[in-house]
Specification:
Elements: H1 19-30, H2 36-43, H3 47-60, H4 73-105
Helix pairs in contact: 1-2, 1-3, 2-3
Length: about 110
């Protein structure tokens, strides 16, 4: 007789944490009397997640934890400049062709 396979637990939903929660968790973990391991255990998150939040806050500063799909100020500026550059290149090419056309047409 075969043993039926035990039912699998339902897939756990991914938890989302607010920017404020992440910032306060990093502050708590950096306290000398608490540390990352204890803070992560107390908050019910994995220590590596807490460490990645701390790293993001250290490298990105105010732009850390900006949320889903929101670009940092530098990324947004870079995208705007790339669009502007593409437009300027097209305009330059058009002006080159126009100058060549009028140079042939004039006596």
């Amino acid at each position: 007789m075969t043993n039926p396979t035990p039912p699998r637990p339902a897939k756990a939903r991914r938890r989302r944490h607010t920017k404020e929660f992440k910032q306060e968790a990093v502050v708590l973990a950096r306290r000398a009397d608490v540390g990352f391991a204890r803070a992560a255990k107390d908050l019910g998150i994995h220590e590596s997640l807490l460490r990645s939040w701390a790293k993001a806050q250290a490298t990105e500063g105010a732009d850390a934890f900006r949320g889903q799909g929101k670009k940092a100020a530098l990324e947004a500026e870079n995208a705007r400049l790339l669009r502007e550059n593409r437009t300027l290149l097209m305009e330059r090419d058009i002006l080159k062709k126009a100058a060549a056309f009028f140079a042939r047409e004039s006596p």
